[in-house]
């Protein structure tokens, strides 16, 4: 490990993988080898990372030989099958899928909120939360540290890309269909313009519409993303009894999730103190001057790393509650970035335990290409 | 008044006026003369109502001569100027503007919730709430009657047409612009595709975006629509101390507002009882079978009269609270329909006080044309 730990990126050819390779090329380079791993049908493709072409290798046991940290950017069932394989071969797994988020032996980490949890990983696996939780966590974690959180009521405005690349493509096609159609104002006119074939993965048309459903149906009418936001927020904040009620809604936005948040705290709060806290919190940008039109919108924050917060108000009838509007790029902080941050924390930990000065200040040689 | 009271429709040529003329043509005909009134520049235009062409007359004192009920579908400053004129000439004014909603001597009426309030009108004026309040009121009024309401947290998904006809047109143009552009995924790419000239009345691009702002800026970072929803809901429900915290957000939908609602009640609630209440409430359609994809969306409810409610769940950590998703056509129940319902209640009251049988079961002659 003379040039930093070896990293495997599993799922390098997917939507989040693509963002991850950009992030790895932009961040300070702490890695030795970076090996790109994907399904066998993508093996042999070449992708650029750190300015070098890198050949994709097929997901298999030996793909993890010599790997120190394995970033999993794949669906839950793939992580469930392969993350334990990577861990058994000695890699620390950073998993972005839902597979291990609820596992009590797997820490769920947002580096701005609970960085120390990353070291307690009895299974050798660290999980990264769902994109909606990640949009909320840096803001609400900072306010919890300042005020003590008691309750959250959240309504989401989730982008199509949160449901995958095909979902974002379906929205773009729907936008073209409704733009070209002579829409009426009757029930179902948008649905007819989009057509049943054009719905994509959504349960209704998304162009010129909103769909109050994301995820799978769990019991009592709840969606998996609504209850997931509750469970994950509780775990990241270390508040197992926190009251959380969420309504998750898909909106016709390509990238970046937004959340309207009602947060109740232990005692009285002020907007001035909330502004002070948010203005100095890592990973958070306070953008809150409605008198000049400054508040975050998804189209304005897309492509940026932090989560953005504005519309900070004290509830008019409850001096212990704040209202907030939060936006974040669901493919960056909401997925690739948080996993990259966790992996970089693990890299620093491995480097520190490997010797006194394992990482050169300047890379002394060109990065190797994997494969 | 042998053939029913005479009605003036002030603002007949506007977006809400257009919907009002359709409603008057569809509803049971309780009116004698219907006189269409608009600004002097629209005088002389002919519009169809009850199957007859009707000439528009200019707004002036004498436009209210012989009028029993005057429906005002105009901006607040026009209502503030002319509603007292109509009332002084003996008409009962039904005003859809914000001008009188907060006036303690003007009742604010949602016929499904507080019908009796219409009779207490010391100024001769009855006000109809804002479209967002009207989307919420039939649902929350019914649940309040059943459970006793304590607190509301509301996040809105408001359609462009709530900001007027030009706003809806601006959204359609923005949809065409983004459909034709080769959008990137960087900050401001949507804003550049739309252009500063294409923003219309919105403070940011609305196509492929959401804008967490509707209305004017009031103090402490609140928008007029957020505080208006609080004040109006309190007045309609007769609960001056009700806790209401709202975040109002514009979404790229042409017609129909949606609301994610967290409602806390006096005691324990159940979804079964809430379903019973909502299934039997006037003006409300319960549409809540997420297991087969049945929940309301704005594109599916547009053009219909009732408000639709689904996603009814009990808060997972609070047995006294319910989560709901409500959709309603902001140009029908949200504007024209509610005012028409109030006017029809006044018509019935006037008819009852005029004699034993003033309204023929079948109109015995063709309606007169105004002007």
TrEMBL record, chains A, B:
Domain of life: Bacteria
Catalyzed reaction equations: L-aspartate 4-semialdehyde + phosphate + NADP(+) = 4-phospho-L-aspartate + NADPH + H(+)
Pfam families xrefs: Semialdhyde_dh, Semialdhyde_dhC
Family annotation (InterPro entries): Asp-semialdehyde_DH_CS (IPR000319), NAD(P)-bd_dom_sf (IPR036291), Semialdehyde_DH_NAD-bd (IPR000534), Semialdhyde_DH_dimer_dom (IPR012280)
Segments for region (Disordered): 352-371
Annotated ranges, domain Semialdehyde dehydrogenase NAD-binding: 6-121
Recorded metabolic or biological pathway in which this protein acts: Amino-acid biosynthesis; L-threonine biosynthesis; L-threonine from L-aspartate: step 2/5; Amino-acid biosynthesis; L-lysine biosynthesis via DAP pathway; (S)-tetrahydrodipicolinate from L-aspartate: step 2/4; Amino-acid biosynthesis; L-methionine biosynthesis via de novo pathway; L-homoserine from L-aspartate: step 2/3
Keywords, sorted A to Z: Amino-acid biosynthesis, Methionine biosynthesis, NADP, Oxidoreductase, Threonine biosynthesis
Alphabetized PROSITE patterns for the sequence: ASD (PS01103)
Keyword Oxidoreductase (UniProt): yes
Top enzyme class: oxidoreductase
Transmembrane segments: none
EC id: 1.2.1.11
Family classification: Belongs to the aspartate-semialdehyde dehydrogenase family.
Subunit structure: Homodimer.
Protein name: aspartate-semialdehyde dehydrogenase
Species whose genome carries this gene: Streptomyces sanyensis
């Amino acid at each position: 490990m003379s040039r930093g730990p070896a990293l495997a990126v599993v799922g390098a050819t997917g939507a989040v993988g693509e963002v991850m390779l950009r992030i790895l090329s932009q961040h300070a380079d702490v890695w030795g080898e970076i090996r790109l791993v994907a399904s066998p049908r993508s093996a042999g493709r070449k992708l650029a990372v750190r300015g070098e072409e890198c050949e994709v290798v097929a997901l298999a046991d030996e793909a993890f030989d010599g790997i120190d940290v394995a970033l999993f950017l794949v669906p839950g069932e793939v992580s469930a099958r392969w993350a334990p394989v990577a861990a058994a071969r000695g890699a620390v797994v950073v998993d972005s899928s839902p597979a291990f988020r609820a596992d009590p032996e797997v820490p769920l980490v947002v580096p701005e909120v609970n960085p120390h949890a990353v070291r307690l990983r009895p299974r050798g696996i660290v999980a990264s939360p769902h994109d909606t939780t990640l949009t909320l966590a840096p803001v609400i974690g900072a306010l919890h540290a300042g005020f003590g959180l008691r309750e959250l009521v959240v309504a989401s405005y989730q982008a199509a890309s949160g449901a995958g690349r095909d979902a974002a493509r379906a929205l773009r096609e729907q936008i073209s269909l409704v733009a070209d159609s002579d829409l009426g104002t009757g029930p179902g006119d948008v649905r007819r313009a989009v057509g049943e074939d054009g719905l994509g993965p959504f349960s209704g048309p998304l162009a010129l519409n909103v769909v109050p459903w994301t995820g799978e149906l769990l019991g009592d009418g709840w969606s998996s993303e609504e209850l997931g936001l509750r469970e994950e927020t509780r775990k990241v904040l270390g508040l197992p009894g926190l009251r959380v009620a969420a309504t998750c809604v898909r909106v016709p936005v390509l990238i970046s999730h937004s959340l309207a948040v009602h947060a109740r705290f232990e005692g009285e709060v002020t907007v001035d103190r909330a502004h002070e806290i948010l203005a100095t919190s890592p990973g958070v940008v306070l953008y809150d001057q409605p008198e000049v039109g400054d508040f975050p919108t998804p189209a304005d924050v897309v492509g940026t790393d932090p989560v953005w917060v504005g519309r900070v108000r004290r509830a008019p009838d409850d001096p212990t509650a704040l209202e907030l509007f939060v936006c974040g790029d669901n493919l960056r902080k909401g997925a690739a970035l948080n996993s990259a941050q966790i992996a970089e924390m693990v890299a620093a930990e491995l480097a520190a335990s490997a010797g006194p000065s394992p990482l050169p200040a300047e890379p002394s040689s060109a990065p190797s290409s994997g494969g």
